[in-house]
Amino acid sequence: MATDxxxxxQNASYTSLHNVHMQVAGRDMNFYVHPNSGKEWQIxxxxxxxxxxxxxxxxPHRMCLKGTRVEHMDEIRSWIESDHEFxxxxxRIFLLEAPTGSGKSTLAHTVCQDARQRGQLVASFFFxxxxxxxNIKNFMASIVSGVCxxxxxxxxxxxxLITEDSSLASAPPSRQFRDLVLPASLSLSANRRHVVVIDxxxxxxxxxxxxxxxxxxxxxxxxxxxxxxxxxxxxxxxHLGTYPHVQRCTLSLTxxxxxxxxxxxxxxxxxxxSYGALIPPQLVEDFxxxxxxxxxxxxxxxNHLQQSFDEPAELRKIVYGKGGSGHWNASGLSQLDxxxxxxxxxxxxxxxxxxxxxxxxxxxxxxxxxPLSAAGIAALYTPDGITEHHVHKICTRLQPLxxxxxxxxxxxxxxxxxxxxxxxxQRAPSPFRIDCVEHHRRLSRLxxxxxxxxxxxxxxPALKQHLHGDLMSAMPFRIKRMPPLLRDDIxxxxxxxxxFVKEHTLAIQAEMFSHDHARLLHNVIVGxxxxxxxxSASLGRVVDIVPLRVRALEVYPVHIDDKVLQGTxxxxxxxxxCLKNNSKNEEAVPFLDEAVNIFRTLDSKNAKRxxxxxxxxxxxxxxxGSPTIAFDQQFAESLHQRAKNLEKLGRHLDALDGIExxxxxxxxxxxRDPVTFEYKFAxxxxxxxxxxxxxxxxxxxxxxxxxxxxxxxxxxxxxTGFERRLAKSLYNQAIDLRKLSCKAHAVESMExxxxxxxxxxxxxxxxxxxxxxxSLYYTAVTLSDLDMLEEALEPAYxxxxxxxxxVARDPTFEANLAVALNAYADYxxxxxxxxxxxxxxxxxxxxxxxxxxxxxxxxxxxxxxLYRYANHISNMGRHDEALKAMQETIKLCRRISxxxxxxxxxxxxxxxxxxxxxxxxxxxxxxxxELLEESITIFRRLTEEEQWFEHRLARALYSxxxxxxxxxRDVDALEPIQETIDIFRRLAEREPSECSSMRIDxxxxxxxxxxxxxxxxxxxxDAILISRxxxxxxxxxxVDVNLVISLQAFAVRLTNLGRHTEAADVMKEAIDRLRxxxxxxxxxxxxxxxxxxxNYSNHLSPLGRHSEASGLxxxxxxxxxGLARGDPxxxxxxIALALHNYAISLSCLGSHIDAVQAIQEAIQILRHCMxxxxxxxxxxxxxxxxxxxxxxxxxxxxxxxxFRSNSSILSP
Length: 1212
Known about the structure:
The protein is mainly α. About 65% of the residues lie in helices and about 5% in strands. The radius of gyration is 41 Å and the shape is elongated.
């Protein structure tokens, strides 16, 4: 795109580099260069911008007991180490499905430990929906962190990807996985396994994770193994159950199969308990049987026994108790419910004080979005009379349902398992069942109270150094990044309220708000949201306040003063810009959108008041710091920032709408105060033009550039920043002009940009050399488009020199150097310097070959380079070497097809086609036919999907027919050549706009001799480079030429089969089309017409139609005479040959004297060509000898018919 980066080497394909995004195809390429590329600190800064892994990892203390789960671990190890079927590529998933409490998580911790010891563990993540850190964002942080830790090169790769696109640091998980993890993983060694463990898939509510595992894991290298555990759930089965890269565990974690493991676990726990020796062996056996493999149930029972007075008696009641037998015989879930019910203090359910505290504290435990400590809960619930003592008493009574509760008031309190939360909120009996909605309401109220009372710099000292001054007093154009706050910098309950007030508030319906609650919400969210927003942003996750504002205005609809509203707009703009500066573009967009909406509302009100308060407003306008100007300035800034964020998020059309409005706002300001705002107006024009260009509106973009460039020139005199913008604006103007075929003007703009880039480079070479290289490259490309190849050589070579300088300090730039080398080789080749072209192309190929060995994404660049290299070798006549190079491209295409079977097909088909041409040159037509059959099959398939490939198919069919003719199979050649004709007829009948995405290269033939040998094809240089749509614009005349050549080839085949009449009819159609083509007056068209008429006359002679043939051959003479008048030093030999053929027709008609006269003129012309060295001497000698012999024959024939002439005509 044209906004921030620099275009270099446009129209390239599928290449990503450090600080560069490049595409390589044809002779053009695009790459975007970021300032200060190649600096290590930039990579490190990019990596630090990634979300940090926060908990949810594996715990060696939660592993399986030694000697248990042996079969399961053996199965998993075997799966990790096994080589899967050769036809199954990519990463693999081992899905372990088992019910609640079966020990899935414990097994996952064990796999982590085992993989860690083997040097295989990449990352692990244990989902727990009771833990606020357990989310897909932290999951991706864990994966990216794990991949970075494997290899420094991988870490550098991820850093450079983020440097190229800073939005990746905060991008959605799918983008991070696709654009960070996948590219980086390609650099990992294939000689080791890379294991990722994911526990409790079912506890991640979003389906995004399941979609990632389904769609992207197969794209990982085959060394990746992902173990995932889950409860049996339809949602998981739907996304993963039937995909070939997913293998399910064959062993059960519950039931009889796991009995011995559970028994070992129970015995180990009892051996550590003070009452363990009191439990008889048979009771242990029955207890294990009763558990039915549900480890969590056994854990709950054992934890419960620790609180019992008579442990053996209590265990007997649980195992043999008649009252609970119905529960024990039901599913594992019912067993847990029964166990949880036993833990609840039913004896206290009549104690109203206990019940009140129970509902409050347990309601908090099951509703909190992230666990808090006893101190944190007490501080948050202080308004409701809860103390740490109350929290401790309730938690002590419910200790079996909690994870490792110790009474430490600073340790977060966690429920034992999600099934505990489900039981307490869905199935527990009254009064123990918790109403989550009611507790969301309570937590919303308490969080809002905490924010209003405690989130103040006076109470939180750490905020004083972070929160900014009065936003309304000075609206800065450049806002610094939001300074970070750590969680420990804020009191626990204040931190929680800040981070989760939105979730609790939006979880309840509007009608559930009391008047006081609604007023509190309005005061915090609408009246003074600044501290909440800045604090949450500094903590790393800004509160999405827009839906909170909507809810606040819904439940407390009061009038908002315009000054307050404007202040809110400024605040939102400030927050949005800070987020943008921290590369959190997606979070920034809602704030900037809301700021724009607020300013629009204010603008509408101001417009209505203008007629009523005109005089007052005019006075304000005249005063310094006019409120109206300030408002317009804030509005323009908000629009600008919003547009930039939308662009970074790929929402180009939305961004374009926003930037148009931005320009209008700055235009108004510049008209009123040019000294203050004209430079901002110039910058907005610059950005608007770039947005328009990126959207394909090139003409509109050029109009804005015409307006922007004079302003940029004005400010560039004293500001280097504007000088850079001016150079880039001229550069982008040249690119747009070139796309619109205004190439001469494009060269002028590009040369002006080069002058500025060179001047900037003298001050700081590293800041502009990539832009300078790009400008030079494009200048050369455009000059080449104008057929000014000699002039293109100098800038093309200068681009190479600069690229070499960049590579010397930044080797990752080397692919760009290779493309520049290829372009220079092309220009040399077109000018006939084939050995030099081969040398530069060889350098490019060596570079791409080395780079592609490290980064498979660069194999497309290698492919393009091999195409060119083969072409340059072929131009030197070394077709055998060219064939070897093209055979390498076929191997490369087949290798790429393993990871990109669809995308590589056009290149494979083209490689096969070109390779067959070199085989034909080497007179190996049978081998050529084998390659062409495969090429034609692929092109047929591609043509069904995209019409562009129809032209490619036609060329392959033409070549196929030609090779059939070479081995004498003229009958078999008729069908493919007829299909070729049919295709070109269809293309010729289409409207030019229908072919606008095609690049049509013509079939060239050698048809100068009288034997009509059109089998030797001379392929255009660019023909080997066009395997994809999107090259230069189609030329309808080129379609006609290809149709003519195909018709001529068809006529030759018919002639060889003795079907002369049909052949003559076909040739007549070809001549009719050539005449239309020649009406353009172009030299190439005239030459094709002359040669075509010559061929047509040769077809008429065997039919005895000598009179027609004579007239046609005389027309050929006239065409060459006309061409010679424009270029007297050329076409002499062609006129002589045409006169010779004309003389033959005259002689066949009995006009021998006229034939002699024609021959005499031909002899004179040839002797002149020989004397002046205007034609090939050997050819002239042969033709002169033939003419003299034919003259003697014609004289002899004339004498036999009684003709007598003066001696000058009949003399030899």
